[in-house]
Known about the structure:
The chain is an alpha/beta fold. The protein has helices at residues 20-32, 52-66, 81-94, 111-124, 135-138, 144-151, 166-176, 190-195, 210-221, 225-241, 249-257, 274-287; strands at 4-8, 13-14, 17-18, 37-39, 73-75, 98-102, 129-133, 156-161, 181-184, 200-203. The chain has 12 helices and 10 strands.
Amino acid sequence: MFKGSFVALITPFRDGKVDEEAFAKLVEWQIAEGTHGLVPCGTTGESPTLSHEEHKRVVEICVEVTKKRVPVIAGAGSNNTVEAIELTRFAKDVGADAVLSVTGYYNKPSQEGQYQHFKAISDAVDLPIFLYNIPGRNIVDISVETMVRLAELKNVVGVKDATSNLARTSMQRHLIGKDFIQLSGEDASSLGFNAHGGVGSISVTANVAPKLCAEFQTATLKGDFARALELQDRLMPLHNAMFLEPSPGPVKYAASLLGLCRDEIRLPMTSVTEPVQVKVREAMRHAGLLN
Length: 291
């Protein structure tokens, strides 16, 4: 169920408000293009600047439009454990298939603190949980030893790994087992990640290249790494361009070029500069997304 290309959905805005119509169309387009799963309200969806009401509405729209055609992993993380439980409970109530729960940004919990945080969520809500380990943004890292402990919790089923350490994929597979679902949090290294035992990606690039990203993931899962490498060569400039400035600036600009939404982003994030716009357009042409 949780394999392949999952898109870390952007949240379209229009005049400062969530553009619900554009978001619903984006979800429908993603499914039509072959995306294997949807992740609303992650960092790419600008969750830090969504109000609680907006956050819940975006998850609700995603589930409603999807109609169980593909799985929905709803962003439900917080550095406030009570808030994370509330968002997880809401995701379950509206019919999400799982949640993505991030480590404790800013307050920097210890390994024991992280374990107790995720244990409290797992104990409170009976819904599959994907841990989100991204020390580049959150400073704290879920150690391999803590990951092993967390995998024993009844609702923790996998991880979105954005550590840039591909060896961890093999180590976690060795220590936890093959059933622990490892999804890459970095498009550029997804090829190696899956070769180490990963089974998919939660992708930024898939917002604008869903078909290519789905084909890439399908190839790796079939063991056709020659075909996957061909697609990687086509997508790599785009993967790189998506992070030339802080995300989701580049991907929102790219989405605007395809008419998916406005190039509108909430402060303190800003739209990308002209030099990056040029590189994004070049990368999209290389991938065959623009003429």
